[in-house]
Each structure stands twice: as structure tokens, then as C-alpha cells.
Amino acid sequence: MLTDLDGPAVERLAGELGQVAIQGDVTVRADIDRMVETAYRRWGRLDVLFNNAGVIQGKPLLDLTEADWDRLMNVNLRAVFFVLQAAARRMIRQDPMPGSELRGKLIQTASIAAYRGGLPLTAHYAASKAAVVSITRTAAQALAPSRITSNCICPGVVDTPMWAKLDADWTALEGWERGKAWKRRTAGIPLGRPERPEDVAGLVAFLASADSDYLTGQAINIDGGLVMGS
To answer: Is the distance from CB of 13 to CB of 34 less than 8 angstroms?
Structure first.
């Protein structure tokens, strides 16, 4: 089941993947509850949550407004927590997954920005992702007795529309040509290329699988070596 704010887009993707689509805003509690309830009505349980919604903005620290801060935190932090909470409340009441001692798995998307701090233009983004790591680890401790795991992934510089937006914000502020910020940010990746969405997908699939059943409370860097030893 896929949920996104963009209804037509999530319908198209769900059609391609043979999945169920729900238009919803994860900053709205009623939409969160409807999303979780839909899963239980259709399948009778929810085994894995991938808490992946997020936004970014490039803006100097001293220019950030309360509206900038609140918008980003609402999506990147508040929504992550309340989606996690809503899913976990239902997971603790369901039977373990077939062939497993676990009742469910929670997966969040953080970022390497949680460890190395943000770029000078992404103070609020970095703060939100550091908090996602903290929530992930707290949930792992709180929910372990109920046999629910909680882990998060920390991608690096991924070639997605989100990074295209950051490149646009950054280059506009610096007066560079479009694409220069992207080139500067990816130049130091030890594996020699930008990250692709499929690089991240494999890690998420592992965390959703039985192979990760004994893993909880972890924030896993997947960044081509850009940050080491965090």
C-alpha cells in the first residue's frame, strides 16, 4: 500500500507496481488513521511500515522563518512520529508474522545530515533528521518487549527530485549555474558516483525481510562512503 499527498501520482505508481494507493497528508492525524485502518481492513494486519515522507529547503540559517521551520518539521519529524505511533499501536495487538517472533517492523528515513550536520543552507533539515534517528532508537527500546523492531536508513546524496530542488535553491543563492551544487556535493563520494534510488531500495528491502529480524535501534548509513565512522 502506497500513500502520498499527490493522489494522481501515487495512483500511477501503485498501478505500475500492482499495489493499493491512498491519497493522504501525513501531517494530518485523520489521514494517518485512515491509512493505517485501510491496511487492516484489507489485509487484517500491517507487518512493515516504511516511514519515508520528507521535504527539504535550502535557505541560510539566519533567514529561516518560523513558517519555514514549522513546515519542514511537520513533514520530516511530526508526521514521522505520529505515523510510527499509529502503526505501532496496531502492531502490538496482532499475532507475530508467520515464521517470525516479530509482530512488526518500523523503518524510517533519516539522512547522513543527522550526523555531519546540514549544509549551511539546511539547518532545519539536519535537525529534523537527527531527531528521526533519536525517535527510531527510542521506539526500538520501547517496543522491543512487544516484538516490534525500529530502524532507520541514512542516505547520502541521492539523485531524486528532492536533491534537484536543493540544487536549485543552492545555486540561486550562490549565483552559480544550475547543477554546480550537485557536482560539488557529489565530487567527494568515495565510490565515485552519485547515489541512485535503487541503492537505497535494497537496504529497505533487507530491513523489511526476515534477514533483519535481530536488528533494531540502528541508523544505517548508505552513502557510498561519504560519511564514515558515524
So the answer is: no
